[in-house]
Amino acid sequence: MLRPRGLVDLRDAGDVPAVLAYPPGAVVVVSGLPGSGKSTLLRRWSRAAAVIDPRVVHVACEAVMPAWLPYAAYRPWARWRYFRWLRAAVRGGEPLLVHDCGGRPWMRRWLAGSAGAQGRELHLVLLDVGVAEALAGQAARGRWAPRSAFTRHRRGLDRLLGTFSGLGEAAAPRGPAREVRSVVLLDRGSRERVSVVEFGDGRVRSVRS
Description:
This protein has helices spanning 38-45, 54-63, 71-91, 105-116, 131-141, 147-162, 188-193; strands at residues 6-9, 19-22, 27-31, 50-52, 96-100, 122-127, 182-186, 196-199. It is of the alpha/beta class. It holds the Pfam family AAA_33.
């Protein structure tokens, strides 16, 4: 079991904990490129906390729209619904797992402020699997991110990863991640080995299916 604090780099690590343990009520953001395995990881952990995934809202909005109408036409409405859902969930006070691209510092600042106002912590799990693996993941699921969006996410993620370069283990996050209490870096191998997350009570509530 690992209780993350500061920077925890599990990329290419030989000893990867099966359990990540966070304080009660923590908000854990899982970030990475489209296709990097965020949704799969969140499904694995979903018995430990509610999962806030914008894809759920996208699908719900798509279901009530005419098939001929492109998503871009109602994207603002979908985003508004997503942020309403996220805000209500954060205000609810329960532990949360949040799916996010990782390239939006303002989102982490807002989450940190909203959670911090309730005495809760914000933590980050960052999937660094590389572009080729992310594209393979998109191909496997049969759903592709638009090239412009993928490029934007890649640049944001590269900037974020760059802030950790040269930092030692347990160093305090800085730059665009300074508002989080911990950052756990995972690659393809370690992503598959962290099978459980728990929040505060010491009970393992999510198991690999």
